[in-house]
Every structure is written in structure tokens, then in C-alpha cells.
Amino acid sequence: MDVEIRPARREDVAAIAAMFAGDELGGHGDSADPADLPDYTSAFDAIDGSPNDQLFVAVRGGEIVGTFQTTLITSLTGKGSTNLTIEAVHTRSDMRGHGIGEAMISHAIEQARTSGARLVQLMSNANRAGAHRFYSRLGFSQSHLGFKMKLR
Q: What's the rounded Cα separation, in Å, for the pair 124 and 132?
């Protein structure tokens, strides 16, 4: 079965939230509760309205089986270069190992090339050893140490 990568639509938000809610390692406090859907749709609207952000879904057999977000960031470093950051990469747990993640990352890399980006970057939860092997296999190298500060 082939995987289609397409921009996410508002009607996809509940399926995306359900994938995140089923992620035991993520620890983001996501929920599939319909009462929380307005929070997700509000975030979707902000992403959808941004000229530098895109939210994508992977569709296989008519079902949403993965998602990721990309952000183009231009900075003064690298002589004013643009980088593409990949965020919130997630493949539905029952669909891992079927090439979906690779299709999503390949799509993001092609978007970066088309946009003239200097590099593609992403962060991965320190506890996801399998994901780290996956990203290494795709050509990413572990180059930086990340820090976070939770504000809420």
C-alpha cells in the first residue's frame, strides 16, 4: 500500500490528536477527549495561518497514519540562511515499520530543498532510542544538545 503525504486539513485534527494521545513516551498531556478538540483546532488554525509553518498527514488506505510539522526559520547565522525544522513527527503505533516515517521525513527534506534551506533539523525525545536509530539511518547526525524550560 502506498503512503500519501498531504497538508493536514481541519477535519484531520481529531485523528492527529488521537495519535498524540496514544503516545506513552511523549508525555505531552495530549487527549482524544472531544472536549479538548477546540484547543487542537485553535492550534491548527494558528499553524495553518502561518506562512512559515506547515502541518502534514500521512494517509494510507484512507486513514491518517502519521503526522509531522515543518517550520522554515531564517536567521542571520550562515549568512542569513534558512533552515527547516521538523517537529512532532508521529507514526500511529500500529503502523510503525511500514515506511511511513521514512516517507514523511523524505517529504520534509524535499520541502527544504525546494525552499532553498541550508539544513534540516529536528529534535527527538532522549528516551526514543529507536527513533534515534531511524534518524541516523536517514542521514541525520546527532550534533547538538537540547534544553527545555517548561512554563506551564
A: 7
